[in-house]
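Input.
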Amino acid sequence: MTTSGLYLVILSAGLTVTANILLRIGIIRAGGLGGNPAELLNSLFRLVSQPSFDIGFLLYGLASLVWFRVISTEPLNIAYPLLVSMTFVLVTLGATVVFHESMTFRQLAGLAVVLTGIVLISGK
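Output.
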């Protein structure tokens, strides 16, 4: 993987993580997403009325465009595991910091294993 490819994977992961956090903030502020079909349209309207949700949605689109660039130039068997593992670790940490979700020792150990995998995959 090239250095520029690695930077683009990191950028795509960062955008994806930020998008996920903003989407969740928007969904929480909108009162959730209605479960029954009668409430769905009203729930969707409340969602798109939330700036956090809208920005998160746009960032997801931007992350996709960056990702398209990555997969057009870099080996998918390296880029994809890096993207997924980075987003896994960063979303988990972001949820802990932003939403005060609990983090168990088992989760921390799992994150350490994933981080080790990132180092092994991205190293030359």
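The chain has one domain: 3-122.
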